[in-house]
Fold each of these.
Amino acid sequence: MSDPSAHPPIDLQSIRWILATDCGSTTTKAILIQKIGNEYRQTQRAEAPTTVEAPFADVTVGVVNAITEIAEVAGRRFIDDNGQIIRPATEHEGCDIYISTSSAGGGLQMMVAGVVAQMTAASAKRAALGAGAIVMDTIAANDRRKPHEQIQRIRELRPDMVLISGGTDGGNIQQVVQIAELIAPAKPRPRFGGEYEMPIIFAGNKEAAPQIRAIFRDGFDLSVVDNLRPVLELENLGPARDKIHDVFLEHVMAHAPGYDKLMTWANAPIMPTPGAVGDILQRIAARDRINAVGVDIGGATTDVFSVFGGTFNRTVSANLGMSYSISNVCAEATMPKVLRWVHLDMDERELRNRVKNKMIRPTTIPQTLEALVFEQAVSREALRLAYLQHKEFATVLKGVQQQRTVGDVFSQEGGNRSLVDNMKLDLLVASGGVLSHAPRMEQTAAMLIDAFEPEGFTTLAKDSIFMMPHLGVLASVHPDAAMHVFERDCLIILGTCVGAKGHAKLGKACFSYRITPSTGSTVSGDMMVGDLKLVRLCEGETAQLEITPDRAFDVGGGPGKSVQRTVRGGQVGIVLDARGRPLELPEDRGACRDLMLRWVKALELYS
Amino acid sequence: MAKAYTPGLKVTPRTLHRVRRSLPIHGDVLVNVGDSVEPTQVVARTFTEGDITPINLANLLGVPAAEVPEAMLKQKGSTVTQGELIARTKGIFGMFKKEAVSPASGTIESISGQTGQLILRGAQQPVDVLAFLAGRVVEVLPHEGAIIESEAMFVQGIFGIGGEAFGPIRVACTKPEQRLDANLILPDMKGAVVIGGARMTVEAIRKAKDIGVAAIISGGIDDQDLKDFLGYDLGVAITGSERVGLTFIITEGFGDIAMATRTHQLLCAMEGKAAAVTGATQIRAGVMRPEIVVPLTSSGGPIAHVIDTGGELALGTQVRLIRDPYFGSIGTVARLPHEQAILGSGSKARVLEVRLDSGEIVVVPRANVELIEG
């Protein structure tokens, strides 16, 4: 880990003012957290353009601008006349802690390699993704590419660092050495200029370390850490992940414009933005003993985070996004798949041009209702595809060492076993422009339900102003403050979705319901297959919900078994979903449009 | 007066234009400050290391990896040619010897007794950077390249396909709203930069390619035509490296859309002059737009300085509407209300009022306009 002496211990009791920034690719977002009474609350926010690129070429310019904005709205000075953050706080100025995350300049970009694509290479990929990296490519002995094709690919990439794994400790060393022999002569060049040597992290068979050292002796900065698959049944990603963070700070950040200064300002190591989001989600899931999924859909990429049974996984779908990548979403999903979510008549040829125009002018926003409906249809497909990729990837336990049997390994190779189980999903958190800025909360809820298809009882929420990165890094310094803010200011609870798993013909019985709110009278009724129903239940309220499914359906108790739960209300309320799982829409465009129109009315999406 | 900043594309009749031409890795700069350069002149050159060919000799020879070094007939550092014998086993009592020949020409970089793998490095490959702009070298970037300057007409497109191309301007469409059909592409346009009007059809692009046209510039293209021509659906707007036989650039967007009158008039006025164009487009991380540059030799008219940041959105400014329901319309800013408005979509956003050429005044989000900069 990073040298702790660089960040001296802080007396948590004395902390009253906390400043946090997230330096994104285009915008630097600052939030102010204050201790009010005995709890911490997020009180102000501001943003300014990120200044990593010319003409400023110094990330701290944007940070100072964002903090200055905060200072104006808070009526409190945080930057002194020398451009330094004022610390510690006095009665009238300054803050006690300053922390930051960063994804500026494209974030952390890595190449990973392993011997077997489904085993050591997959573990290496998980370590990199868990550390918050974008994995540009995964090289493996069995990735079906010829050696010269692999070499060509390595030469084309300009990663920030390379992670190599392969072999169990004491096992075969030839194959991992062979992979290293391909990478070294290909001489991958680092992204930020050519002034420093390419960092290589080796986390493979420890007995291959001497050969690996010899291969990467000249022109590389090699670090050897504990094997991330010391034996076949064990995955040990911690040391590799810590080393990735260290190298990120020491090499990548240190060479990005202004980061040397930013690092000296911060009270905790700067974290890659997605790494911080993953950390806070894990903390919440662990504290509340729940399974959670978080999604952040951006213009270019979609990140999905999940914690199931304490196991964290993260995936980045590099070309699934709502502006730069919108054309790719339509190409991957196909236009008929996108249009099934549209209840209006639209001309496909015209839509194709609109998609491309959004791609080349990514900052435009939908002006008409028709344009909004179409964008939200595209988002459902982007989210659906990203979640599909996540489910296929999230197959192995991460972080702390956890035993798995060899039998598990082989069953996973077939790609049949995902850790993601929608019936066990308790909390689904949305963030990213199309979800956060939807004009109506019902639209956000509908996009989540249609794309993720939660089963049983699932709380739906959205990150109010994409605060999770700030809170992730804050949690490493002051966990209590992070938790206070997460619960009170970060999450906006939309409500609860009840989804029935199973299939039957449209119009057949699906389940009956009985809802007893904490205040107000009981409502009950029957849901037929294909029905959607919205029952308003305000934020802060709860209700006793009893669902009795038909024998073809399951809401968590098993087929036909009744389930009772206390559920949370929210900005939307309770959504009863009797459309079945997996969700299937009619192939016929007219029938599909009519059904969609029914659902639009049921959820009051566009009225 | 209310003001705001918004991005825009440059359309400049005369500017002191500078281009930075640099190598991807360090190399030799072949020009000096003050030199006059031609567009296709090489200003900097370097060499990249040759391709690598890994050869699994242990498999080829059928011996354990550890025995490969002693079977080598050529040692590390030796130069070998394709088909040349490089290794031979001892065999059994001098019989059943196995041999391996080199599958490519190059230099032996390493021989591994651990894996039995030989790494062969091919010949270095030159990387050249051309001047692109006919003009004068005003700065040499040591080991990197040069900055070249010239008075020029400068137009940015919105999207392009293909890399750098050069040729004289030829006008195919005399009006900006005229569609660029195949019948307007003539055999004597070979090697030219052809100016269209509205949408370029896939038939026109194919004919231009067959004739050997250097580049086509028009207002729009139908996405289906682009897909038909490329043979795949373009997913992400990072272009410029395509090898499709010509470069093409659209100035307005996708669909049946006329080129802005001012852009069209400017390009038509350059007929016969030598142009340099590039279709390279990148929307993310360091935005790059296609460019059309025509160096101007004689002085005439005032010089506008191109500013790289966005411009000021003020009353009377000419803007292009870049999103439906008014996509492609051009007008002037009539009002910049400070307060947010509720759009037809239900979203709240800051808006502006635009007076269209027809006289109609429409309200659009500020995010949905683009300056037409001079």
Amino acid sequence: MSLARTFWLSVVFVLLIVLHFTLRPVLAWRAPIDFLVIALLLVAVRTRPGTAALAGFALGLLVDALTPESFGAGALAMTIVGFGASWLKAAFFADNIALNGIFIFAGKWAFDTIFLVAEHRLQGTDLLVQLLLWSPLAAAGTAVAGLVVLLTVRPVLGAPRS
Amino acid sequence: MRRPARTNPTVDLVLAAACAIAAFVCLILPAGARSGAAAALRTTLVAPLASMQSNAELSRRAFLSHDTALRVVDSITLRSQRLTGVEEENERLRKLLGLASALKWGFVPAEALQGRGLGDDFTVTLSAGKSAGVVPLSPVVTAEGLVGEVERVDKSLSLAIYWPHPDFRVSAMAADGSAFGIVTGHRAEGASKYFLELHSVPLRSILKAGTLIVSSGLGGVYPRGIPIGVVVSEMKTAEGFAKSYLVRPMVSLPNISSVFILTPERGRSGLENIWNTGVNADSVRKVLVAAGDSARPRADSTVKRPVPAPAPAVKKSP
């Protein structure tokens, strides 16, 4: 990846992080858009799995810093999602909107699942409702927002690493 | 699409494993250590982001509460406007209470029921009638001064005329007793009709602007000492034997809400010290006597001066 693209990727990455801490609280939806997952997947499909895992770990710590009760759960979930997304990106490299949407949807849902299981806060029915209702809804919203971001930044960042 | 070439998968795996282990360690740390680590992040790296999130949430709350806040502000504004009216009314009632304590007896409190109809601006219905002891020709007063007089009396209501009414007449004098005359409504158009005129003032009596005019007590309807108004300026009239003055009334008609109707007995007992107008019966008597003396033609005088008309007993016939 060229230096210019690395620069623009960093800019978009930071912008998405800022959006996560500004736009998301303003919207305050019950199934919120996760801009950190979008940022992670954007980086993951353009970097090596190790780098993606590191980025995931860093993003996860950002989340965990604001939720001390589940400190570490976000880092673990983001690490796994980043690493896995980078490994799996070959399957979604096609410039297909539906496939990219599914990729983001799955990434967000996987993050929620790992996070909720790791933090041990929700159990039983509450956990099932969160995993089977609100997490898919949040994942769908994140997928739509992620597609918008992908289509927007594609001219700047180019196609994912192949 | 072809799969990307991986130069060194082991490095990736090691990195990922290290991150995962670090995250797991964070997860199993004691609560105190986790809180400490989270706090350290919050106060350093995450501080700007936490601040942005806090501001965003505040913005959202402000946005959501805007309409509510607007309604609250409107309500407060409305109440404060009402409060101004209540304060004014309170002030009026306080003054009226002061008047009541000064009068002590011989008055009937009443409410002025405004808005009787178009073209009837100078009459008012009062909420006290014959059953409360009100009789026709009773003076109607407020804490500021004279309002008018009762014209007709029903069992529970009475009808009074204000001072701008064409039938209104009151024998008046300067508060220091230096001049006497008759006060009527000012015959003019527009806002000027809410002034009064002091007629039949002897030519030798000069009243300065600001001189207080009170009822003189002559004529038996209005007791002496009720403030009527203050002199604004002298009026130019065709009368050659007396002066006329424009008088600003003490009582503003729109502010009238509660009034006192004086009983005839109270009027006869005197009101000189009620409004603190400085009217003294003796001094007034002296001035009247002096006016009578000066009205007599002097033997050594070759100039026939116009005889000032004594303040007549003014009251329209009931």
Amino acid sequence: MKHWTQREATTGGTISPGAVNDELRAQQSSITTLDRDQLPGNYVSSDRLKDYALTRVYSAEETHTGGEQTTVVDTTDIPTNAWNSATFDVYPGGWQNIDDDAITLAGFKGGHLQIEWAGNAYIMGEFAYGKNTPSPKSPRYVNLRITANGLTIAEKRGPCYHEAFRVIGSTLIPQGDVSIRLQWRIVEASEDDPLTTTGGDRVPQAHLYSMRYLAIGRWR
Amino acid sequence: MSRITDSPVKDGDSLDAASLNTRFASYTQTDLNQFNHRDAAHDLPQFVNTGFMLTHAQSQEIGLNNWKHSSSVALNGMTTMPADASPVNNGSGTVTDMSFGALGINITEDEVFRAYWNLSVFANPGTKWDDASSLGYYVFPATAPGPTKKAWTWGAVWVTYLEWDVTSNSRANYVAVPGQSDFKTVIAGKYGAALGDMQASAVVPADLRFSNRPDAGVLGLSGDQGGQKWRGLSGAWFYTRPSGNVTCYGLRVVIKGIMHPFSNAGNNYLVHDTVYSDGASLAYNGGNLAVLKQRVK
């Protein structure tokens, strides 16, 4: 701890050249060594800090607009008691983005990222117990994952019913805008799956909706 | 922004008055700027210890907390439309809503309001899933004496969502939170909501049925597998004010069902299936409702 004062001026005290010079010198010297120790405690409030100096929260009540997946959506011959959604007629296999546009976390200063992705997911699991399906027979899942700048930071087996889900990812990310992708995947149809109804309608297999996210960046 | 770039003094350097003065002078009051002594210099002792990032946190139990399921709260399927949502209660008529006190909590433009809920549920599907007027089935080719058989769509759900009261601390005016429908919109003669209006909802399956050993796209005729047990559901809602502030006095979880997927004119909806709902019910026990309010910058 540095001392700010060499000779404290007091009322009625004697003034000498040394008193003035020593004090000035001490002040200058102290300035060169000003560090955290000299800063008062409990004085940094949200009012004193520049916006986003320590943290930044990114969130969307719906992602993307409407909160529904917009890729791999079949609109042909869909039954009215089902959604325009992914069928095996349009699903190409593999991981799919929920939307063509990525989520951009602008102004990320580098540090810790936590992201929560919530929503509801539908999966058609009716035919998982097929005669020719090898044992052990497994339910159908909507696999879910989050990528940040192209790297997977969270992956989950996902729902095997029509149910709510939440995926939470956490990682360290370097400075710069972060590109987030929310992705899903289903397994291919088995040879036992009826893929069209007797009326010729296609059977929807999966759909994600009412999706939202919350991301928190911490850099201090 | 300025940075001091003088080289450090090394062993063997000769220092005189001029070089010392230069070194001192390069670091003057003028250079004690934002970068050097604000953004880069704060440490934990300098931070105030209340209300800095997290401005409010609160949680409570909801429903009937009986984890052995020896008793539970029963909710019948909704068959008369338009139906009001059923608030989660303790089985004795007391709604287990969350109160934010006489003054409520103020959600400002610079904050995000996070709400999380969970509930233990058991769905009884009833027997009307394959009724001719129900939405709950598709028809597929089947083995003799076929030639067809109904199979469950896997779409039927109960939906839980959030309501809040932003009028007064009497908490008598609950409405669905922003971005969340009350499922009373009329769509082609049915009551429900567009999927885009379900920002604070979490669904749980109302039924569970597997076809028994379908073979090469053809269904068998009997012995379908399924049946639900007690299970959990979990929901989350993230809300930021587009502008201005709002004071919230209460928050609660409500339930509607049975709901089913429905499409009309190219749009997707979740609608009440009053036929499927007849004789169906949802039992629930306890859960939790938690909120966090935090600054976004």
